[in-house]
């Protein structure tokens, strides 16, 4: 049996190239979510989202690292990236399976993915504060996947766009690839941010 059929047994040999194309496609469509958090760090600063407030446990709601500027900047950066990635296909091959859709759709869908990623990161920060973990402390699993879960869940607000790209048919293989590759990519991006002086910790 060909190797890919152990991973995805429903793929016939003739359909394998099409199915395996779903992996880079899913990563391509998820790029706005991947870039949202790094761009939130770049554009961050200013008033924190929680306005410095704490809950009854004495811990901040989110912490100083989650700011309005970061939330807006990261969302817009992801939206613009999705639009730019899609434009060549819109101009040269509008029916390409690599297109994010018409410009308005590409912008909105990418903004939703990016906002979802940042909201997922906010939830992760909230959970870490409840665990009495300080800002920047490691929380394995939570650090790597909070933004992925947030982005995917919020993308369901536009199911006509997200379902065929992440949640159905061969796209499920791409979704698996996102889950597998995220820890390594997350580590690499944070290491770059640390060396650039944008992050206090390399994780």
What's a quick, concise take on this entry?
With 203 residues, the protein is mostly helical. It contains eight helices and no strands.
Written account of the structure:
The structure is a single chain. By secondary structure, the protein is mainly α. The chain has one domain (about 25-195). The protein has helices spanning about 5, 15-30, 30-45, 70-90, 105-130, 140-155, 160-165, 170-195. Helix 3 packs across helix 5 (about 105-130), helix 5 (about 105-130) crosses helix 6 and helix 7 (about 160-165) packs across helix 8 (about 170-195). It is globular, with a radius of gyration of 18 Å. The chain starts with a helix and ends in an 8-residue tail after the last helix.
SSE topology:
Blueprint: H1 3-7, H2 16-29, H3 31-43, H4 68-92, H5 103-130, H6 142-155, H7 159-167, H8 171-195
Task: Briefly note the structural class of the backbone.
Answer: mainly alpha
Shape: globular
The run of helices and strands is HHHHHHHH
Mean pLDDT: 86
What portion of residues belong to β-strands?
A: under 5%
Low-confidence stretches: 1-15
* Overall number of structural domains: 1
Largest sheet: none
- Quaternary class: single chain
Instruction: State the end-to-end CA separation.
Output: 40 Å
As a whole number of angstroms, the C-alpha radius of gyration is 18 Å
Number of strands: 0
Binned, the helix content reads: 55-70%
Number of helices: 8
């Amino acid at each position: 049996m060909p190797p890919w059929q152990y991973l995805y047994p429903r793929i016939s040999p003739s359909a394998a190239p099409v199915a395996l194309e779903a992996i880079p496609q899913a990563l391509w469509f998820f790029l706005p979510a991947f870039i949202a958090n790094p761009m939130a760090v770049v554009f961050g600063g200013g008033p924190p989202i929680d306005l410095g407030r704490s809950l009854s446990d004495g811990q901040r709601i989110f912490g100083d690292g989650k700011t309005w500027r970061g939330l807006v900047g990261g969302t817009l950066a992801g939206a613009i990236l999705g639009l730019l990635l899609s434009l060549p296909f819109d101009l040269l091959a509008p029916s390409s399976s690599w297109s994010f859709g018409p410009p308005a759709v590409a912008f909105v869908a990418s903004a939703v993915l990016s906002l979802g990623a940042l909201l997922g990161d906010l939830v992760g920060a909230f959970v870490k504060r409840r665990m009495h973990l300080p800002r920047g402390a490691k929380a394995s699993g939570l650090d790597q996947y909070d933004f992925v879960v947030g982005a995917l869940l919020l993308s369901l607000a536009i199911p006509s766009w997200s379902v065929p790209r992440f949640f159905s048919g061969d796209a499920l293989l791409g979704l698996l690839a996102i889950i597998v590759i995220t820890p390594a990519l997350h580590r690499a991006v944070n290491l770059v941010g640390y060396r650039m002086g944008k992050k206090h910790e390399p994780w």
